[in-house]
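Reader question, answered in our methods column.
A reader sent in the components of a multi-part assembly and asked whether the whole thing could be modeled at once rather than chain by chain. We filled in our standard form and ran it. Here is what they sent:
COMPLEX SIZE: two components
ENTRIES:
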Amino acid sequence: MANSSYRSISFNQQGQAGNRSLLQKIHLDGPLLLGLLAISAVGFLILYSAGGENWGLLNRQLIRLAVAFGGLFILAQIPPHHLRRYTPILFAIGILLLIAVLVMGEVGKGAQRWLDLGFFRFQPSEMLKLATPMMVAWYLADRPLPPNWKHLFFAVLFIVIPAFLIARQPDLGTALLVASSGAAAIFLAGIRWRILLAIGASLGALLPVLWHFMREYQKQRVLTFLNPENDPLGAGYHIIQSKIAIGSGGLYGKGWLNGTQSHLEFLPERSTDFIFAVFAEEFGLVGCIMLLTLYLLIVSRCIYISIKAQDTYSRLLAGALGMTFFIYVFVNIGMVIGILPVVGVPLPLVSYGGTSMVTLLAGFGILMSIQTHRKLLST
Amino acid sequence: MFQNVNIKDNLKENRLFLNRSIFLFIVVLFITFGLIARLTYLQVIGHEHYADLAQDNRVKMAPLPPTRGIIYDRSGKILAENRPVFNLEITPEQVPNLDKTVEELSTLFALNEQTTKRFHKLRQRSKSFNSIPLKLRLSDKEVAIFAANRPRFPGVDIHARLMRHYPYKELTAHIVGYVGRINEKELKSIDPKTYRGTYQIGKNGVEKTYEAILHGQPGYLESEVNVQGRAINVIERAPSLPGKDLRLTIDIEMQRIAYDALGKKNGAVIAVDIKTGDLLTFVSKPGYDPNPFVYGIDHKSYNALQHSHDRPLFNRALRGQYPPGSTVKPFIGLAGLRYSVITAKQKNFCPGYYQLPNLEHRYRDWKKWGHGPVDLDIAITQSCDVYFYDLALTLGIDRMHEYLTLFGFGQRTGVDILGEKRGLLPSRDWKRKARNQAWFPGETLITGIGQGFTLVTPLQLARATAIMASRGKNVQPHVVKTIGTDLNSVPFSPPAVDQAVTTPPKKSILWQQVIDAMTHVIHGARGTAQSIGKNSSYKIAGKTGTAQVFSVGQEDEYDEEEIEERLRDHALFIAFAPVKEPKIAIAVIVENGGHGGSVAAPIAGKLFRKYLGD
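And here is the structure of the entire assembly that came back:
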């Protein structure tokens, strides 16, 4: 247990007990928390405007946020090794729930994403957003890295199974997010570049096949993305109005509550998926750069935490969660500014809506746990 | 598992992981810059374009049409007003069950299928928050019926719209005219900005002449609309500038007296204020009710008006061209005095006919056996034709044409009602141009008694009479007295008339001789219109006339029974009073009326009594 004593010494050297802030005692990461609260505050500001100055909307969002931060706090208390231990069980439950949803969907005919638990509705795909990178990290943590073909195969399988099940719901957006969070873990595990290239190439080859399996509305979204002006009143309307909102905002924006595109309801989905357009209209390019910087700071902190993490599981998981968060931001903003197809991905901590926020903050809870339990790892 | 741990090279793995993390961070940075680049493209380079699009999205301009100016008579009675018309309208989004509501309303108001069909058609083209008319122009009773049933029909309401209304109907139709739907021809000539939101325009009469003044300037309502086009709030409201009111010179009571006095006959009555040129009476009978034209008259009613033998749409006072008959004689007589070819006392013998030298044809006098020795006074008082045949011949057509032109014959009076006819004052030039014929002496003769080619409008005749009464001062007839409301009205200035230019002769005794003769027409023992001046405290000067019919009725179809009536002579009468200080001049034409003295003169007499008292 020499190792252990070394660690406790280093602990004592690094941060005296007095210096250990209250935050660290309750396993919260200051910079991350500050960033999250700052973005939440911006989110409230812009939601107030986007929702037509509706306090009811804000209240519901506040309750959700409180619940989500509660979840964050709870998860932050769980040391990573406990989390690691329960990862396979969590993943298995998630997959079973996904299958359950699909079966119920078959019965109910049509898209089905929810499990109705009576008092609240639960979306198992959200759970997989966390469980998938956890599973990949769990699987690769004990293997020699970079992983060999066999390990890679299993790791990819842990991604493909939930992604496929979610895609069948059908919820392509979440499926892609789940897959990319797992992929981020594999990438961080040090997958060789040539293998990566090979996978990329085969994925490219698979695109037409994927196209074949897509539902009509999904195909339509992609076509609309490629040429929104083709159908200005139909499917292209969202993107056109969104670009008008953003473009008309200009350098400094029209000012808070002064966005015409949103307040006059030209902008669809303005409280949810397209809330960034409301922000861009009212706060302009300057505001956008500031918001993006805020997101960038959070992602940077996540990467920092993952680099500082002391075991492979934590490291891979922290990195993957950070990347997932960034992918959220990128996919949402990319969609709103018209460089990505319209997929139902909310802007983290800003868009109105519940489940994804809880999942996101739960992920940050895990990140904080990884960061704050670092010194006590081997005790 | 434990073996694996031993195999793991932690240091190498850490380095690998760090590399990958740094790589990902760089990717994150690149993507972020990519997003910022795209945002810069949209918000800086494309800003103007998108700002325009956003503005187009949000702002809608709605015109606020101006209220049309009201037209009053000279005493302030309303001749043309804007009256609210009540339409039954439905706002679909406020109606729980539209089909049922329409059905119930249909039974309540006995709506036909066509009406409901039109409503449903309109509804499909309109936004659900727009009010759509179901039934137009509700009667008072229908308004009451709906009021009683209103609670049953949420989302249904009565909306008022201003429509032009002419309370005096046929009495003022030929003066005031009417407004109607702007047609395509008018659409090309009007300024679309001024007429945004306006659907009607003056079609004739004062409504047309003074369109620019009556119409006013539209305002606009710039409002912010949401995606459904519903107005959210007003950005700017520029109120419309209402059209200016007009006060006419017409006295509606005199108008009615003249109209009624014509009785069943058709004709025209003009009364003009000699000093100002105010047209006090401007009657063309029959008139017509202009109100249906405002809403859009139906074909059947329009055809009935158009093809009626009485031609109610024809403005006789303005466009009717009649031979002046004997009413021209005072002017010819004055011409004789002015050119000194006669004196007032000089006598001619009237045998009852006149013959041109070396010609067989006898030009008859209306009095078969002749008037005997006739001076100017007798010639005018008894309307001796032979005297004027001779005088006309002596004057010649050139001098007659020159002199009668000074009284406005053959020219438009310039009255402020559009569409005036100019009549016809024949001359050698005219005949050569129009008929390519030389002038014959016989034509000179009949011109002297107001027959032949000469045609006058009632308005011209009244104006000439007024010029006679004012002893040569020009008179400009007009119907608009003031522009603007009575309180701060701007006095109407008629088209420039050179009042200084007076018609010769300069010697007032010569005028007096003719006017005296005209006075004797009314007050003399053998005057042709004695009936009207018997009890008056002032003297009236006048002249009767009878015109042979040959123009009116030519276009009409022949109707055996009506021909008799239609071929009867027109009765004419011109007069002014008081002789000492002339105030009012009147011209009356009664179509197919017979003799001027018995039919036309009494109409003038009633107007004199109304205007000047007994």
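What stands out: Chain A has two domains: 27-77+228-371, 89-214. Confidence is low (pLDDT under 50) at residues 1-18 of chain A.
Send us your own complexes using the same form.
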